[in-house]
Amino acid sequence: RKEVEQDPGPFNVPEGATVAFNCTYSNSASQSFFWYRQDCRKEPKLLMSVYSSGNEDGRFTAQLNRASQYISLLIRDSKLSDSATYLCVVGKIYNQGGKLIFGQGTELSVKP
Amino acid sequence: NAGVTQTPKFRVLKTGQSMTLLCAQDMNHEYMYWYRQDPGMGLRLIHYSVGEGTTAKGEVPDGYNVSRLKKQNFLLGLESAAPSQTSVYFCASFDRTSYEQYFGPGTRLTVT
């Protein structure tokens, strides 16, 4: 079983749609949680951190359920520019050298 | 402030040849990482370093060596390249304040 699992997609949605990505992780000792975005043939970039209380950044909302070991990302009012691969990332920061474990990514394609 | 840079951007090697990938960061980060990314596999950690003069193995270290002689540089070496090492290689550094990993633009390596 992979340590971080995501639905690889692709998710094909029309502009303006709401889309949700789910992710599960297996290591209950994980301390930090993130969503990264990766455009085609480019490097991953941090989209947002994920907190237990949930957090929102504009059209993006991230949720963490530690009991279920489940992370989600909701994108509202999708834009063409949201087309990318979204990587679920978990890590143990303090005594693991800041190592992060990346999911394989969920591909999103937003169509006009 | 260039962030994280990688050289070269592209390289084609023949089986058995050797090469070194160079990663440099100007953010004064202690922690640095080398990943490889293959289709359907996500990012996998090869080696990492928590400071100048230190290195540690990641998830897939076989066939690679690393060195961190200076804080700003992290080198990845392939002593005898194999076709299985055809991949995109990303270097990253870690900000211990924001918990964000910053990635370089990647090196696309093909081994024939």
Helix/strand order of chain B, N-terminal first: EEEEEEEEEEE
Which chains share the greatest interface?
A-B, 22 and 23 residues
What is the general shape of chain B? globular
Number of strands of chain A: 11
Oligomer: heterodimer
Low-confidence stretches of chain A are none
- Tell me roughly what share of residues is in helical segments of chain A: under 10%
Primary descriptors:
heterodimer; A: 112 residues; mainly beta; six-stranded mixed beta sheet; five-stranded antiparallel beta sheet; 0% helix; B: 112 residues; seven-stranded mixed beta sheet; four-stranded antiparallel beta sheet; 11 strands; 57% strand
What does this structure look like?
The complex is a heterodimer of chains A (112) and B (112). Chain A is built from no helices and 11 strands. Chain A has 112 residues and is mainly beta. In chain A, strand 4 and strand 5 form a beta hairpin. The radius of gyration of chain A is 14 Å and the shape is globular. Chain B is mainly β. Chain B is built from no helices and 11 strands. The model of chain B has no long low-confidence stretch (mean pLDDT 94).
Topology record:
The complex is a heterodimer of chains A (112) and B (112).
Chain A: E1 4-6, E2 11-14, E3 19-25, E4 32-38, E5 45-49, E6 55-57, E7 60-65, E8 70-75, E9 84-92, E10 99-102, E11 106-111
Parallel strand pairs in A: 2-11
Antiparallel strand pairs in A: 1-3, 3-8, 4-5, 4-9, 6-7, 7-8, 9-10, 9-11
Chain B: E1 4-7, E2 10-13, E3 19-25, E4 31-38, E5 42-51, E6 54-57, E7 65-67, E8 73-78, E9 87-95, E10 100-103, E11 107-111
Parallel strand pairs in B: 2-11
Antiparallel strand pairs in B: 1-3, 3-8, 4-5, 4-9, 5-6, 7-8, 9-10, 9-11
